[in-house]
């Protein structure tokens, strides 16, 4: 699993010395992986984005020329770039996978310290063994609002055909944070919530109790079933609260791919600092 970030970007109108194709052309300088070029192409098919190999600038990895950029599309592109720069991008079996924040950061003496989003996830989750225990819905609403902000800035997330949440390992608990957030986001955008289309084939242990990568693989493999008729041909958005090894997301994506989902995008609240499975 590779983690990327759009560290820095600059979108500037071309000067007269550089103009070659259009009087309304712009140069986009990006300090990050070339993968972000392909992400922008997918998100904005109506914009002509040409990768330039001859232009170099200090501290930028690549440059692209954008032509005939209307004011509306210019604003939409800026919003999307800002959303990318505020999140982490994780390579996975999905078409795109973003997380809003790290769950924690290294503090004094190397001891992990929760980020603000990490604190929200901890407050919103129910850690009690009591199946009737509930987390904080007020804090869960705050997480959903942050996800809504990202979705509002990303065209492909905003126009998906259906939203799902990762299935919980404990099917008996009264409050599941990913389910709560996904249902709220689906209501806010009037997008169908499709979790009735997926189901657990068997019970699985909580991934935090799996001590090795092999244990995680054995625990989650072939555990997600899909009713294909509700998934086939659809552009899907999966929502989760926290990602560690990514095994649960990968298994969910694999099952949805087999059910002929057209595209799969993932949005997660936080990513742990643990590296041993990355």
Automatic annotation (TrEMBL):
Domain Phosphoribosyltransferase: 231-267
Organism name: candidate division LCP-89 bacterium B3_LCP
Pfam families named in the record: Pribosyltran (PF00156)
Family, as annotated: Belongs to the ComF/GntX family.
Source domain of life: Bacteria
Protein name per UniProt: Phosphoribosyltransferase domain-containing protein
Record-linked InterPro entries: ComF/GntX_DNA_util-trans, PRTase-like, PRTase_dom
